Structures are given as C-alpha cells and as structure tokens.
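Standup notes
- DV: blocked on the single-chain target, sequence here:
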Amino acid sequence: MKKIISAAMAAACVVPSQAENTQTKLDTTNVQNISEVVVKAVRAPQSAPFAITNVQKQQLQDFAKSGKELPFLFARTPGVLSWSENGVGTGTTYMRLRGAADSRINVTIDGVPLNSPEDQCVFWANMNSYASLLGSAQIQRGIGTSTNGDGAFGGIISLATATPAETPALELTGSYGSFNTMNAGASFSTGLLWNHLIFDGAYHETSTDGFIHGTAGRSGSYYGGLTWLGNKYKISYKNIGNFEKTGQAWNGVAACNYDGDTSLRDYGMQNYTDMYEHGLGKFNSLYEELIFPDTKDGKFTTKRYQMRDGSYWDKTTDNFYQNHNILNFAWTPSEHWKHSVTLHYTYGYGYYKEFKQNATLASKFGINETYINDSGKTKYTKSDAIRQKGLTQNNYGALYNVSYTDGAWDVVGGASMQLFRCNHWGYVTYIADEAIEKKYLGNGKYKYYDSDAHKNDWSAFIKANYKFGTGWNYFVDLQMRYVNYTTDGINDRFVSDANGKYTNQNLDVKENYFFVNPKTGISYTHNGHKAYASLAYANREPERNNFTNNGSYGAPSPERLLDLEWGYQYQGKNWFAGVNFYYMNYVNQFVMTGEKSDIGESLTTNIKNSYRLGAEISAGWSPLSWLSFEGNAALSQNKLKNFDECVEDWDNGSTWNHYDKSTLAYSPSAILNGFVDIHFAGFRATWHTNYVSKQYLDNSESADRQLPCYSQTNINASYTFNFGKRVLGLKQVVLGADFNNIFDHHYAASGYVYYDWYYQGKRTSTLAYIPMAGFNCMGHLTLKF
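- DV (later): unblocked, structure below
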C-alpha cells in the first residue's frame, strides 16, 4: 500500500499543471458518454416497462466505509434480504431477491459476468470493498432485460466501475468498530496525462473477529486501471483482484448436539433468541462441540475440537483468490452509432479445510477400514479427520455490443462467448487414528475425489425501444443462448456397492441446451407520470449440484419462467410514489424435497408448478430542503402446487406428504424498509428501520420449521469538511459513524432444518440458525487530496 500511496502523491505533485493546460482539448461530456457504452447493453433505461432501482456513486462510496459486502446495501431496496455467516456483514454473505437465491440473480461488472458459471452463484466474500470501485449499480427485479452470463430468475445486478478522474486525486479511508472490525483503503488517479492517458488504482482490506465463534477473517480487493481517451473512442484495461481468508460458520448455530440426537427444544429453547439467552448465541459447530447437561436445569458448555497431539483445531476457513482482467475498446463513430468490444479472463483458486468429528471414513472418504466390535459384528471405522476441498477455475470470454439511437429508436445488439474450465479436488490431510493415517496419508494427504468441468456459453440478443406519440415507448427484446456443459471424474459423494464397500459417485454429464428468451412491454411517461406493463419468458440450465445431488431422480430439466410485470409511478415536486405488481410463473423450478442422499445431504428435483405473486411499493416526501422520508415494501405470496415431501421415518423408512399448495421456503411475505434522512450543510444522518416477516425453512409450511419475524434499526451519521483552499494538500475530510441494530435485537436472518424425522408417528424437527449481531458500531475517517 505504501508504494501505491507514494506513487499517487508523486503524481498529484507533478501532473496538475500539465493536465490543467491540456484537458480542455478533450470533450469530457463525450468521454462520459463513451464510458456509458460499456454497460448500456446490460442496463435498462428509465422508460423500461419493469421494476428497476439505480444506486448512485455517492451511495456506493458512503457504504464502502462500512466494510460490509454489497448485499447489505442492496437490502435497502425492495424485496432484497441479506445476511452473513459471521453476523457482522463481512466475509461469507448471501442475498435473496424476491425469494430467489444467489444462483438465480445475474451479476455483471462492466458487462462481464461475475456468476461462477457452474454453480451460477456470486460469492460476495470474494468482492470485499467493491462498492469503493464502482460508479453506479442497477438492480432489475424479475427477468429484466437481456444480459450476459447465466439466466436471471430473481433479478439482475449490473455493476459499473467508476469513470477515472481526469484530475489528480488521492483518497484514504479508515474504519474501526465492534468485534475488532477494521476497514482501510486507498485510491488514486494520476489525472489526465498527455491529454489522453489515465492511470488509477485502489486497494481495500477488511478484517474482523466476527460475532460467531471461529469466524475471524480477512478479505480485500485491489484494482489497477489504464485508460486511453480519445474524443470518439476509449481503450481501457482493468485488473480487479480479490482475496479472502474467512472463518466459516455455514452450519450456523445448530439447535442440537453434533450427532443431532438431542434437540435444544427439550430444554425449553424454541428459537434463536432463547438460545442466545442461554449463552449459546455464538456457538459454531464447525469450530466447537456443544456439551449437553445431564439435567434440564444444568449448564450448557462448549469445547474446542481436539487433535491427536492435544492441540486444538483452529477453525474452518475459506481461502480464495480471484483475478479479473478486462480489456475494452469503446468507439462512437457518430452521434447515432456506438460500439464496444471486451475481452476478459478470470482466474480463481481456493479451498477450505474442515474438521470432521468421529466421521465414518468409508462413507465420507471411501476409506473402507473396518473393525470387529464387542458383539462380533464388522463395523466401519470412525475417526476424527480433516478434509481439504478446493477448485481451480479459468474463465475466458469476449463481448461485442453495438447500439443505434435517433429521435425514435434506441436499438442495442450484442453477442457473448464464455468458456469455463474448472477442476474440483479434495484431500484428507489428517486422521486421528495413526495406523490408518500412516496407511493412506504417506505423503501427508490422500486424494479422495477429482473431477473436471467444462462449460461453454454462447449468446446473442437484440433489443429495441421505440418512441411514438406523446410519451409512449414500446420495448422488445430477444435473446438466444446455447450452453454446453460436461463434467467427468469421481465426485466427493460415496455409495455402497454390491459388496458393501463405499466407492465414489462417477460423473459423466454431457448436456446441451438451446434457449430462446423473448421479452416485450410498453410504457407511458408524461408530466411526472409513468405507467407500464411487460411480459418476459426465460430459461435457465441446471446447476452442478442439480446433477450431483439428485439421488435416484432422473436427469434434471431446465427451469422456465414467465414473468408478468405492471406498475405506475409519479414524481412530484417534493414527493414520489410508485407500485410494481408482478406474477412469476415457474415450470420445473428446483426445490428441496426433504429426501436425503446416502450421506444425508438434501436432494433437489424439478417441481412442475410454482409461482410468486407480489407488489413492490415505494414512496418518498421532502417537506423541507434538509429533511426527507422514504419507504419501500415488498408484499408477496410464494407458492408451490402439488408438492410431495419426503421425511425420514424411523419405523417405516420414509414417509411422503402431499401438499396441494404450500409456501416456498425462504420467501417472507413482507419486507419493509423505512428511512429518515437529514442533510444540512456538511452534516448528514440517516435512520433506517427494516422489517422481515416470518419465513419457512422448508416447503411444508409448518410453524415448527420457520424463522420468526424480526426488525432492526441502523443510524448512519457523517460530517464533511470542505476546504476552499487546500490545507496541507487536503481538500475534504469526512468523519462518520454507523450504529447498527441500535435496539440490540437478537434474531436469526436465515437458517435451515438440521434434522427432521418421524418416530412412533410423531414428527420432530431440529433447526439451525444464521444469526446477526446485536448492537454494534463503526467509526470512519476519509481524507481526500
């Protein structure tokens, strides 16, 4: 970081006079227009006939100081939920949009897909402090407009990096707060060199001890860019890298002991709040074992997992490094035509290590060691072990976009190619049984699975807006997409053969998909009024785990979605209001059935009929120049039709329950946000209250398997000192503080069904919770030169 800061300071001292004397030769407005060409193809205009939210640069820059991952900013918009494993908002973070998980949300940066092509997710832990690098973001709810990469079934998030500053600049930021959470960063721009070249860069890092035990971690990002500007073209190269080593808590706070044979409900604990009151609020089963008392009024304790030599297991960490390379050429030969060509390459490498307590070595790792017990029966050996699972990724791609505009038409066409190559691997690196470890881990590790995956994705689209009459706009969009996916090798799941020995599941997947995704709509905009309606159809191929976790089900089929959107908005002098209605009808949506694989993992399969129906409402009022009130609400019904659920039955093997209609898991019917904003001179403060209604943890719509509703409130305040003349090189200082969950509510933002079974006709369920921290705060300082 010292080298970056020194280079930037030197540039700030040497370059200004040169830039000031020459930059007027460049049409800066045209430069900005050229920059917008890069993301125009994947973004929707304000006249779009569906729901969009634009996030501006200032919001992104302010949020970046919190150290939190981007989903927590997006959760201020309608229909978005976010949570993190460590409870603080950094590291491993997830989001849902209209109830749809990460794998159904298409994310791009400068038009380049960020979703991992195989599992179709964005891992936000790998994007720490990206908010500081961005100039804008757009959220499209529903299918949205055509984009690059995997299909959108919940929404689209389009990220755009900030346009490089044409005058020399240097910014330093630092934040510190609860749980020893720290965020520090620096960014710079040389300004315009030789009237054409800009070099800019940034480095940001976040570290925390985490709220949940064993979730301490460190993550960060770096950026370096070279931009050559002409009056009608721009050439840029951007290198964006990220790294993370974060403690993991994906098991959450489990309401049972390690073997799942004792539920904390037996001790009067019905939800996460009860567990917190009993001192178990930070328990992490990936890090420590829960010791149950002999009596119901006894004291609960935890114990770190212990190694053979008497030392203790440190913690489960996720380690990942990723590097994006984006080369772009944008050209505007005339006022009507714009072109953009992008080449991109992303390299990723990562792994995690996990302690497996008393694991059956045969079913977990294919190590078929046995022993004779006291009854003379042959049993598979159990032992503590450590597994290391990882992958190496290479992703190559090219994009071309062209647009034409005149008084009536705005037409955009594009083509995309993405070639993805990945190797999945896993090792056993420790076995507590010394004899078995010596036999299998001669070189310090034993490879127990190895598989390769190739995915090729080609797509092309054309979309057009046609203006007619007074305020009328017609929209049409057609995308064609061809996907080829193959994976082979041996998987990390084991099945018993005819001789009772456990062997790897063999992978031999070769699938081809061709999709046609049409969209159309109409809107009317006049004197502050906007009314619109649209109809869109989309297809989405299965994820990797739909093949590897489908048990005895047949080959997975693509999901299909019909999305109808209609709404109305009004923008007055000092107030606005709007409502968006939607009906999303799914065919072959993937859902959990309740059935388990041979090793106890949840199986998914296609469900023929399901839908999401809802309304998204937003409003705001500014009675005074320094005071504003805003709010939004997402109200919905999310249903499965004719759903068959499988539950383990200790007496009968399994029991199947049929539901004519039930509520989709992880889909609350109400998400509300309210804001009060005060902004006077250099002072700004925002009050934000969020409410989320109850949500079910499986598809049975049972009150025994649900998260209760919750609400929490945050306050953010800052004061900006602007200097008319630089003081010691400074032109601006910003002091601020974030106060989160100010009423210290103890709640779980997500969770899952840990164990679910019938015994003697009675159904019993044990839950695990993903909690968020109680009251916490963060102070921050920004210096701009």
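- Follow-up: The CA atoms of residues 252 and 770 lie 5 Å apart.
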